[in-house]
Amino acid sequence: MASMTQSPVSFTGNLASKPSASDLLKSSSNSVYGVPLKALGKAQLGAKRRDFAISAKVRKVKKHEYPWPEDPDLNVKGGVLSHLSPFKPLKEKPKPVTLDFEKPLMDLQKKIVDVQKMANETGLDFSDQIISLENKYQQALKDLYTHLTPIQRVSIARHPNRPTFLDHVFNITEKFVELHGDRAGYDDPAVVTGLGTINGRSYMFMGHQKGRNTKENIQRNFGMPTPHGYRKALRMMYYADHHGFPIVTFIDTPGAYADLKSEELGQGEAIAQNLRTMFGLKVPIVSIVMGEGGSGGALAIGCANKLLMLENAVFYVASPEACAAILWKSAKASPKAAEKLKITAKELCKLEVADGIIPEPLGGAHADSYWTSQQIKTAIVESMDELGKMDTEELLKHRAQKFRKLGGFQEGIPIDPKKKVNMKKKEEAIVVSKTSEVELRDEVQKLKQQIQKAGKVSVDHREPGLNEMIEKLKSEIDYEYEEAAKAVGLEDKIVMLREEVAKARNLKDHLTPVLKEKIEQLNDEFNKNLPSAPNYSSLKYKLDMLKELSQAQSMSEKSTNTDKLKVEIDKRFKEVMDRPDLKQKIETVKGEIAKSGVSELVNLNQDLKEKFVQLSEELESEFKAILESMGLQVYPRTALEAKAKLDMLNEETDMIIEDVINSSNLKDKIDLLKMEVANAGNAPDAESKSKIQTLEAEIKQAVAEAVSSPELKEKYEKLQGQILEATKSSVGSDGSLVKQNVDEQSKHDGSPLEVNSEANRSFV
Question: Which NCBIfam families match (predicted)?
Answer without folding.
Answer: accA (TIGR00513), AccA_sub (NF041504), PRK05724.1 (NF004344)
